[in-house]
Amino acid sequence: MAGAVHNDVEDDFNPEINTTPLVDVMLVLLVIFIITMPALQHAVKIDLPRAASAPAEVKPETIDVAIDATGVIHWNDRVVDLDGMRALITDAARAQPQPELHLRADRKTAYEDVMQVMSAAQSGGLAKIGFVSEAAKR
């Protein structure tokens, strides 16, 4: 009987990694970068004029409005009523640049009081309203 010759060499696992394809890819990428880098840095050499000016940014004024727990409104530390605040908001909305309204309310202030101030600011023409709060203590 003719038996098949068993070849142990074909069944062995070869743990080596063939790095030749990796080296080929890296060399191709290197050649591509060597060719394209001079094209990316091509620029015309000119002597540009120099100017020494800084942008003049006028920071808008901030208006602090505080509402205490009883509903009393403070406009920049001055007590005002709702109608007086509406007049102040209308005057402030005409200023250029328009001021920012920073609204601080006591945690026990009625929601209605806060909404009245926000509504007055919106109807008066103020576009920027920010809420001021304290960070939570840990």
How are helices and strands ordered from N to C?
HHEEEHEHE
The percent range for strand residues is: 15-25%
Please state the structural category.
alpha/beta
Strand order of the largest sheet: 3-2-1-4-5
Give a short account of the largest sheet. 5 strands, mixed
Helix coverage percent of residues?
A: 25-40%
Integer-rounded radius of gyration: 37 Å
What overall form do the CA principal axes indicate? elongated
The strand count comes to: 5
Distance between the termini: 88 Å
Number of helices: 4
Any low-confidence stretches, pLDDT <50, length ≥5? none
Give the overall average pLDDT: 84
Give a description of the structure.
- This protein is of the alpha/beta class and 138 residues long.
- 37% of the residues lie in helices and 15% in strands.
- The chain has four helices and five strands; from the N terminus they run H-H-E-E-E-H-E-H-E.
- The protein has helices at residues 8-11, 20-40, 82-93, 111-124, and strands at 62-67, 73-75, 78-80, 100-105, 129-131.
- The chain has a five-stranded mixed β-sheet.
- A hairpin with a 2-residue loop joins strand 2 and strand 3 (78-80).
- Helix 3 packs parallel to helix 4.
- It is elongated.
- The termini are far apart.
- The mean pLDDT is 84.
